[in-house]
C-alpha cells in the first residue's frame, strides 16, 4: 500500500498516522460545515473567530504531517500520542466557546478515547483517557454560553437534535475507523505470511545449496578421472584409427566437459551470487554467448534469437544468472526439442528476456504456483526446482519472472531484471 510521499506503508505507526490524518480532514470539514449551518442557517450567534482557530490548527497539523510521512518510514507511538492530544485540545477549545458540557458534541471525547485505545499502546491510551477527562472538567468551568435565537422557547429540543447529529457522526466515524483498522490488520497479516513464506523458501535454498555443493565436490573427482581416461583413449591407435569410435570418444569428452562446467557453476553459485567469478561484459555479448553455447553444444533443433535490446551497455555477468537462464532454456528444450524462441528487449530501465517453446504449455496448477518448489508438469521427483531457483535468484537481484501459455500453443517465460542491478559500477545507463 502506498500513501503520502509514495513510501510503502509497511510500518503500523505510519499506517495509523495516515489514518489519523484522514479522520482529521473529515473532522475539519465537519466542524466548518457545522459552524456555518448553526450560525447562518439556525441563527445561533457563535464567536466565529475563536471557533475557526481549531479547524485551522487541525489543518495546519495535517499539512505539517505530510512532510513527516514523506521523510520517515516509521512513526513512533509518542508521535501518534502527541497528534491525538492535539485533537483533544482542539475539541476542548471549541466546546469552551459553544456552551461547554451543555453542548451535545461533548460526546466526541468518547470517540477520541476509542481511537486512542485502538491505535496507541496501553500506556498512551490511558494518557488520552486522562487528557479527555481533564478536558471535560476544563470545559465545565466558565464556558461561553450559546446565544440562542429569540424565537427558541425550548432549548432542550435543540439539545436533542444536536445529540442525534452527534450520534450519527460518531457512528459513521467509528465504522470508518474500525473498517480501516481491520483492513490494516489483514494487510499486516498478509505481509507477515509473505515474509514467513520467503524465509522458508530462503531456508530451502540454503539446504539445497548445501546439498548441491556437497554433490558437486563429490562429482568433481570422478569427472576429472573420466576426462583423463577419455583423453588416453583418444590417443590410442585402435580408437584413433576407427572414425566412429573416435567420434564417440569426442562426444563423451564434450559431455564430461559440460558436466564439469555445470559442477563449477554450482560451486560458484553456492557462494555470494555477485563477486565470485563475475565477468565484465555487455548485455549483448552476454546474451550472444548464452545463445551461441546452446547452438553449439546443447540444442538439436532450431533456436530463434531476436535481439531488440537497443544500444548496448556494460554489465557484470553473474554466474548465477547465466545458470538460471540455462535452466529455463533447458526446460524449454526438453518439451520442445525442435524449436525455442529467445527475445531480448529493453523496457525503460529493465532488461526483458522472453523464452518461448512449442511444447504442451503449463498446467493451470503450475501457473498458479509458479516459482514454488516441487511443482512441475514433467512428473519427476524434485521437478520445478529450476523455475524455483530462477524466481529466487531474480528476487535477490531485484527482478521478477512470470509464465504464461502462448495463444498458439506452447509456453512463455518472461524474465524482467533491473539494469542497475547488473550494471558495471560507475557506468551510467544509456
Strand content: 5-15%
**Total E-strand runs:** 7
Low-pLDDT stretches are: 1-8, 271-276, 379-383
Helix fraction, binned, reads: 55-70%
As laid out across the biggest beta sheet, the strand order is 2-4-5-7-6
Mean pLDDT metric: 79
What does the main sheet amount to?
5 strands, mixed
Order of helices and strands: HHHHHHHHEHEEHEEHHEEH
Tally of separate domains:
3
This entry's quaternary arrangement is single chain
What is the CA-atom radius of gyration, in angstroms? 35 Å
**N-end to C-end Cα span:** 31 Å
Which class best fits the helix and strand makeup? Answer: alpha+beta
Number of helices: 13
Global shape: rod-shaped
Q: Could you characterize the architecture of this molecule?
A:
The chain is of the alpha+beta class and 430 residues long. Helices cover 63% and strands 11% of the residues. The protein is built from 13 helices and seven strands. The chain has helices at residues 12-41, 48-71, 77-96, 108-119, 122-139, 155-235, 237-240, 243-269, 283-298, 319-335, 364-368, 385-396, 419-422; strands at 279-282, 302-308, 314-317, 339-347, 350-357, 400-405, 411-418. Helix 1 runs antiparallel to helix 2 (48-71), helix 3 runs antiparallel to helix 4 and helix 4 packs parallel to helix 6.
